[in-house]
Specification:
Blueprint lengths: L1 H18 L1 H6 L28 H5 L3 E7 L5 E10 L4 E10 L7 E2 L8 E5 L5 E5 L6 E5 L7 E2 L9 E4 L5 E8 L6 H13 L13 E2 L2 E2 L4 E8 L10 E2 L19 E3 L5 E6 L13 E6 L8 E2 L8 E6 L5 E6 L11 E6 L5 E4 L11 E2 L5 E8 L2 E8 L5 E3 L5 E7 L3 E8 L2 E9 L7 E2 L15 E7 L5 E7 L10 E7 L17 H6 L3 E6 L8 H5 L8 H16 L3 E11 L1 H12 L6 E5 L5 H7 L3 H7 L8 H6 L13 E6 L7 H14 L3 E6 L9 H18 L2 H5 L1
Parallel strand pairs: 33-34, 33-35, 35-36, 36-37, 37-38
Antiparallel strand pairs: 1-2, 2-3, 3-4, 5-6, 6-7, 7-8, 9-10, 10-13, 11-12, 13-14, 15-16, 16-17, 17-18, 19-20, 20-21, 21-22, 23-24, 24-25, 25-26, 27-28, 28-29, 29-30, 31-32, 32-34
Length: 716
């Protein structure tokens, strides 16, 4: 009540000033001597050289994604998202290119009404999502990407869709009220909710909110519609009616979580039963239901596995269902192993069981003898081929990060990026002996930019085990000089700072500003085997910190251009946690710190975050059953040692690491008298996504570096 009273008083005072413009506008109030000025955003950081790649360049880049090869293997359609920084918006368009020949890519005509999520049908037509009718619906164009026809005319947005093998049906995911009898009921209820005078939301079970959205009591459910020769869809059949769960899952699920059986008469989908335990369960199962009648029966195909099962894909002959599965309930970073289920008998076997990597989305080869997937691999993300008969695993691509791929009759089209380049399309034959052939160049301006040179290194870390890292020289590097260092700490914590591109934490932007970069894939990182990944759980503050300390010492000894006396440590999420942990357990090592959406109080985090399975696995139980584990590596217990200047950044729509964590960090810093600054984004989540906000984020972060270790620091 007190807070609302203060706000009401401020509004009343503002109204009073507005009502007397002569007093309010005639003469500005004089500045009070000694009063603090309103914080201002730092000026853009100077580039290391006139042609260096900068964060301003990065924010404005085109972003390629989602390659889709035509059924005849001759063309590939892909999306390009362009950024208008001045207008603070992004727009996605669809492009097409012949895989052979030198013809330039062509922007599809269907973009004029808005188009995204293109998928080829077996009928040779191109399907896509568009909001041109007033809501997001499935549309169809001819093979040239012209002459659009509206397929679905549903009363609510299509979130995701998948075509049947013959393109005579489409499964769509819609957000509906699960207790409604039909779509009309959901539409009417949504309208009534929007017209309510009261704003209260009532909950009897969790989730209450997830990622960046408050629960609105709808669920993602599947509907199947027949598609006529004209392209128009018939009546929708609610095939998951009565199922208490989301398909695809919230917040990041997509059509890889559901698929048609080869005959088109049933749908297999991955989903978790909500019940009362959803926030602490990772028990996603594969379910099969009738695609024609929506009879409300659901067969659990993976009932014997209490952990995560997902990504169902049928073999070309329809006799085998491949999918990925974890083994340990409640552990989101467990290894995704590959399983094959005989459709007729239900017998299941694991393939490539000795391959110590975690598989991503699966694709069958045309002959049904090979599965293709991507996986993290010692700082790279490669495309792999797995023989389904003997489990032999063969890497297909080399250094870089493969984010998507599609097969052609003669090879692969794949999207690949690296530390020094964003994603573009490449082609490689099945033989794999030749260098990949580049198909696109969606950012030709980068050809004239200078990037820092990256090098991977390794050293003995915790327990004497090999740990890998990267060092990047600043753009315009001159032999014999020393350079200030940005020491970047990745999040996850089960993640990696490897040879890949990022639009949020991009090491090349630091190199472009004249900083050397050091990144350590500490124990807990992915791509080095499951035991390495497992080693961080219940050890957030000891093993990773030892790796960071040893890696930093090794890098300074090995690379003399690193100026260890001018270094700042930066991290987000778990990386932000580690920044807080460093502040209390390795103080004085860095001239400044940057903490984005980092954890301050691990005990409080156990009650405040939404995905409870994460904190409970990482701490070996709940906060009430195992409070000592939550306190063992709690940064809040070491605030007395804090003394290094820290920039704290938080998005208010971050429900993973809620705002109270950042406010607590800033409060501790201010109360301790430590030089600090809080940057708060009321409209961002765990990530800063809007162009204008991204620009300010980078101005603030690089301004902080400049202040303590950059050109401005040299003049202080």
């Amino acid at each position: 009540m007190r807070r609302h009273s203060l706000l009401s008083g401020a509004v009343a005072a503002l109204a009073l000033i507005t009502a007397v413009p002569a007093l309010a506008q005639a003469q500005p109030a004089p500045a009070v001597s000694g009063a603090p000025a309103m914080p201002t955003t730092p000026a853009p950081h100077p580039a290391a050289t006139p042609d260096a790649f900068t964060y301003q360049d990065m924010i404005g880049l085109n972003r390629l994604a989602d390659p889709q090869v035509s059924p005849d293997g001759r063309r590939v359609v892909y999306s390009v998202t362009a950024t208008d920084v001045e207008a603070n918006r992004r727009a996605t368009t669809l492009w097409i290119r012949d895989i052979e020949g030198e013809a330039a890519p062509r922007r599809l005509a269907i973009n004029e009404g808005g188009a995204n999520t293109a998928r080829w049908g077996a009928d040779g037509n191109l399907y896509f999502l568009s909001g041109r009718s007033g809501s997001s619906q499935v549309w169809r164009a001819d093979a040239s990407g012209a002459n659009p026809v509206q397929v679905t005319r549903l009363p609510t947005d299509v979130n995701a869709y998948r075509l049947s093998p013959r393109a005579d049906k489409v499964a769509v995911s819609l957000a509906v009220y699960p207790d409604c009898a039909d779509l009309a009921c959901s539409v009417e209820r949504a309208k009534a909710q929007g017209e309510r005078k009261s704003t209260a939301q009532v909950y009897d079970r969790m989730f209450v909110r997830h990622w960046d959205t408050w629960e609105d009591h709808t669920q993602n459910h599947l509907f199947v519609l027949p598609i006529a020769a004209s392209g128009r869809a018939g009546e929708a059949v609610w095939v998951t009616k009565g199922f208490d769960g989301d398909t695809p899952s919230k917040p990041f699920g997509d059509e890889s979580e559901f698929t048609f059986a080869p005959d088109g008469e049933s749908v297999v989908f991955s989903a978790r039963l909500k019940g009362q335990s959803e926030p602490w369960s990772t028990n996603f199962d594969l379910w099969r239901t009738n695609a024609l009648t929506g009879d409300g029966t659901f067969e659990n195909l993976t009932a014997d596995n209490p952990a995560w099962d997902t990504g169902p894909v049928f073999s070309p002959d329809g006799r085998t269902l491949a999918y990925r599965a974890m083994a340990r309930p409640g552990f989101e970073a467990d290894k995704y192993a590959i399983f094959l289920k005989d459709v007729a008998t239900g017998q299941t076997r694991q393939i490539a069981a000795n391959w110590d990597r975690s598989a991503d989305t699966l694709q069958w080869s045309a002959d049904g003898q090979t599965l293709y997937t991507t996986a993290g691999d010692v700082g790279q993300t490669r495309l792999f081929a797995i023989d389904t008969r003997n489990g032999v695993v063969t890497p297909v691509t080399g250094p870089g990060h493969v984010s998507a791929f599609a097969q052609t009759p003669s090879g692969f089209v794949f999207a690949e990026d690296a530390l020094d380049r964003p994603s573009d399309l490449w082609f490689k034959t099945y033989l794999g002996r030749e260098m990949p052939r580049r198909l696109t160049n969606v950012n030709p301006s980068l050809d004239a930019k200078t990037f820092g040179e990256a090098e991977q290194f390794s050293f003995p870390g915790w327990n004497g085990e090999t740990v890998h890292g990267y060092v990047i020289k600043p753009a315009g590097y001159v032999e014999g000089r020393q350079y200030p260092v940005a020491f970047l700490i990745h999040g996850g914590p089960q993640g990696s700072f490897g040879n890949s591109w990022s639009y949020r934490w991009n090491p090349s932007t630091y190199a472009g500003a004249g900083y050397a970069v050091v990144m350590i894939d500490f124990h807990g990182s992915t791509g080095y085997g499951q035991a390495f990944t497992d080693s961080i759980s219940q050890h957030w503050g000891d093993r990773p910190l030892e790796d960071l300390q040893k890696g930093w010492a090794y890098a300074q000894q090995q690379y003399r251009f690193l100026d260890g006396d001018r270094a700042c440590a930066l991290g987000a999420s778990y990386g932000g946690y580690m920044v807080n942990w460093i502040a209390g357990n390795w103080p004085g090592e860095f001239k400044c710190l940057v903490n984005h959406d980092g954890i301050f109080d691990t005990f409080g985090m156990g009650y405040a975050t939404e995905e409870l399975w994460f904190t409970e696995w990482e701490n070996g139980g709940t906060p009430y059953d195992n409070p000592r584990a939550y306190q063992q590596f709690n940064p809040a217990n070491h605030v007395r040692n804090w003394r290094d200047p820290m920039l704290v950044i938080q998005g208010d729509r971050d429900f993973r690491v809620p705002t109270t964590q950042a406010l607590s960090t800033f409060t501790a810093l201010q109360r301790r008298g430590v030089e600090s600054r809080l940057v708060f984004f009321p409209d961002e989540n765990h990530w800063v996504l809007r162009p204008a906000n991204s620009l300010q984020w980078h101005n603030e972060v690089f301004g902080w570096l400049n202040r303590f270790i950059g050109p401005d620091a040299e003049q202080r």
